[in-house]
Amino acid sequence: MIGRPIKSRIVHKDPDTKQFSPRGHRGRPGYNELKVEEVEAIRLIDHVGLKQTEAAGSMGISQQTFSRVLRKARKGLAEALVLGHIIKVNGGVFKIEK
């Protein structure tokens, strides 16, 4: 059974930084990967200060889909911070519009 194709998310700015590494962590830390659209969701909500409905409209997706993207992004960030993991920004289903 084939599911629905994933709709491209609109990203207004490609992230300048693609990796964050913890300092003071002994050994080789693990890593968490965030998709570009997850970083965009965090940018719109936590940095710009939009409401979820506004941010979802900006990305061209439903509020429900936006909520899932944001929840996954925040979980990945929290896990990386708590466990001292590297955060890599890579991939996703998006198109850049300025």
Protein architecture, described:
The protein has 98 residues and is an alpha/beta fold. The chain has a domain at 9-14 and 36-96: Arc Repressor Mutant, subunit A (Orthogonal Bundle), CATH 1.10.10.10. It has helices at 36-48, 52-59, 63-83, and strands at residues 9-11, 19-20, 31-34, 86-89, 94-96. Helix 2 crosses helix 3 (63-83).
Strand order of the largest sheet: 2-4-3
- Our count of helices gives 3
Mean pLDDT: 91
Provide the CATH topology of the domain at 9-14 and 36-96.
Arc Repressor Mutant, subunit A
Q: Let me know the largest β-sheet.
A: 3 strands, mixed
Would you state the CATH class of the domain at 9-14 and 36-96? Mainly Alpha
Q: Portion of residues in helices?
A: 40-55%
CATH superfamily of the domain at 9-14 and 36-96: Winged helix-like DNA-binding domain superfamily/Winged helix DNA-binding domain
Number of strands: 5
Task: Walk me through the topology.
Blueprint: E1 9-11, E2 19-20, E3 31-34, H1 36-48, H2 52-59, H3 63-83, E4 86-89, E5 94-96
Parallel strand pairs: 1-5, 3-4
Antiparallel strand pairs: 2-4
Helix pairs in contact: 1-2, 1-3, 2-3
Top keywords for this entry?
3 helices; 5 strands; Arc Repressor Mutant, subunit A; alpha/beta; two-stranded parallel ribbon; 98 residues; globular
Short description:
Helix content is 43%, strand content 16%. By secondary structure, the chain is of the alpha/beta class.
